[in-house]
Amino acid sequence: MTTHRGAAEFVPSTGGLAALRRAAEGCRGCDLYAGATQVVFGEGPGKARVVMVGEQPGDREDVAGHPFVGPAGKLLDRALDAAGLARSEIYFTNAVKHFKFEERGKRRIHKQPARGEVVACLPWLTAELRAVRPELVVCLGAVAAKALFGTSFKVSERRGTLERFTAGDVEYPALTTVHPSAVLRSDDREAAFEGFVQDLKVVHEGL
């Protein structure tokens, strides 16, 4: 059974986002760092009004070192534009900072992080939220939502509604929706995309 030390001992208590980003490069809170190319930390304005949280970096993100630059990120860009939101004004991050995958031939296929890996990485997300202090947190998909709301949370039942969660003794308003990769996998991609945009419009209207 794999044990996870957790990231808490690696998270600096002062220094803001720049210090967090530097420290995350040395995180050994779980075993995912060993297979990944690099840590993929959050990016965006230090005082962004909105923080969007995904699951984990994908193959493209792992190589580039930036969040949401692969196919799901491109779809997210389209959806943000359709909802009237500017990517440049949003802070983007993930619940897990290293790419988890399995190899199939020469390809690296995304593998969902285990609950222990999500919990181990949570101190980074809590620290990012503490540094940015957003007006709204958007959880993209079930892994992000369960990281912040708990394992009983169901995106299918509560997506698109404004709720609140507590991280590090600070309460934040939040909205959950699907991960853009789920839109890409949908049998009816057009309808899935429109539903995703409608959820993001709630974000625009709430600011």
Describe this structure in words.
The model has no long low-confidence stretch (mean pLDDT 96). A five-stranded mixed β-sheet has the order 2-1-5-7-6. A two-stranded antiparallel ribbon has the order 3-4. The longest helix has 18 residues. It is an alpha/beta fold and 207 residues long. Helix content is 40%, strand content 18%. The radius of gyration is 16 Å and the shape is globular. The protein has eight helices and seven strands, in the order αβααβββαβααββαα. The chain has one domain: Uracil-DNA glycosylase-like domain (Uracil-DNA Glycosylase, subunit E). Strand 6 and strand 7 form a beta hairpin.
| CATH T-level fold name | Uracil-DNA Glycosylase, subunit E
Q: Classify the beta-strand content into a percent band.
A: 15-25%
What's the number of domains?
1
How do the strands line up in the largest sheet? 2-1-5-7-6
Q: Report the major sheet.
A: 5 strands, mixed
CATH superfamily assignment? Uracil-DNA glycosylase-like domain
Q: Residue share in helices?
A: 25-40%
Please supply descriptive tags for the structure shown above.
single chain, 207 residues, alpha/beta, Uracil-DNA Glycosylase, subunit E, 40% helix, 18% strand
In short:
With 207 residues, the protein is α/β, with parallel strands linked by helices. The chain contains eight helices and seven strands.
Topology of helices and strands:
Elements: H1 16-24, E1 50-54, H2 59-64, H3 71-83, E2 90-94, E3 101-104, E4 107-110, H4 115-132, E5 136-140, H5 142-149, H6 155-158, E6 162-167, E7 170-177, H7 180-185, H8 189-206
Parallel strand pairs: 1-2, 1-5, 5-7
Antiparallel strand pairs: 3-4, 6-7
Helix pairs in contact: 1-4, 3-8
